[in-house]
Amino acid sequence: MGCSPTTVGNELRRGTPPRKSHRGRTPGYSAKHGEAVYRFNRRCSRKPHKLHACEAFVSWVVTQVGE
Length: 67
Known about the structure:
mainly alpha
């Protein structure tokens, strides 16, 4: 495949949903599920930008500079 075995293992772990019960077949790999888990993890992995914490101050500065 031309990529690290760890990368393949991570993708298989992301794309295989957890087993809901001990009976029946083991769940199979789903590319859609893997992509959804990847996007969710990427969205949650970044720290929020500091400007979002002080929006009132930023809007005040904008009004002061605009005058």
